Amino acid sequence: MTTTSPTPGQLLKMWRQRRRLSQLALATEADVSQRHLSFVESGRAVPSREMLLRLTEQLGIPLRERNRLLLAAGFAPAYGERPIDAPEFETIRGVIERLLASHAPYPALAVDRHWHLLMSNRPLERLLGGIEPALLEPPINVLRLTLHPQGLASRIRNFREWRAHILERLARQADTTADPALASLSEELKDYPVPAGARPHLASRSSHAGIVVPLELAMPDGRVLSLLSTTTVFGTPLDITLEELAIESFFPADAATQAALQQLAAAAPPG
Fold it and tell me: Quick check: bond before 105 cis, omega within 30?
């Protein structure tokens, strides 16, 4: 059997429909005629490189997929993809390292598009005790580590709520990027068992109920940390790796968690 690669018009149509835009709406936003856009999508017209870049910008297509569309049209990719340890990324790595370090004594980490761990600070490492060593072998997938029965799952007091939050976020990310690997990861996570004794969904007595879902993580000494998460991304990336990188930072949701994290940092050996 042979497979036919999609044409640039087919890819444009797929992304337009994924963004729930009509031809008229996209044509208006991109300042092109609806007739010409229709011809491009049907293959009756060949788009220029400039038009493709304009349309992909209006559609908010990820840089990785913009390159794919350009290649389908016979053009060279417009965006580079350097590894995080590339010399050109020295300044960026420094920025990320400073962000992570300055967030102490609270945990923070940097991940790639598939949720593989790129960097983390020491407070995060202190929370990972008791995890199956195989889950800590690179590349470490943060979501797998969180929901796996031999990962953090048994320590998450509000497991059902946190799991629903992760799966919903992953579904949005997969829909936005059209990345099949994210859809596959989502299916894998859905198959993980719920820990024995996990409380029912929406049973949280947190003061944040109805506003935000905290991560309630039990520690070996019996204390429960309540953490709120935020996501930071670079605002004007022109490199695929940088666009797909995200920094996840956790903040204490109550005074007890703040004190516990400060105590953990004070008791940790220097280094």
Answer: yes
Closest C-alpha to 61, from 25, 16, 24, 30: 16
* HEC assignment per residue over 225-266: EEEEEEEECCCCCCEHHHHCCEEEEEEECCHHHHHHHHHHHH
3-state DSSP: the chain helix, strand, coil percent, rounded to 5?
Answer: 50, 10, 40
Residues 101 and 103: their CA atoms lie apart, in Å, by 5
Which among 187, 173, 171 has a CA at the least distance from the CA of 243?
A: 173
Q: Rounded distance, CA 270 to CA 264, Å?
A: 12
Owner of token pair 């600070």:
121
Q: Which residue has the tokens 């929901």?
A: 147
Against a cut of 0.70, is the pTM above it?
yes
Q: Both tokens of residue 132? A: 């199956």
Contacting residues for 152 by C-beta, under 8 A, at least 6 apart: 128, 131, 145, 146, 217
Residues 200, 223, 263, 214: what is their CA dihedral angle, to the nearest 10 degrees? 10
pLDDT for 5-60, tens place per residue? 899 999 999 999 999 999 999 999 999 999 999 999 999 999 999 999 999 999 99
N-to-C CA span, the chain: 58
Report the pLDDT value the prediction gives residue 209, as an integer from 0 to 100. Answer: 55
Over 70: is that where the pLDDT of 101 sits?
yes
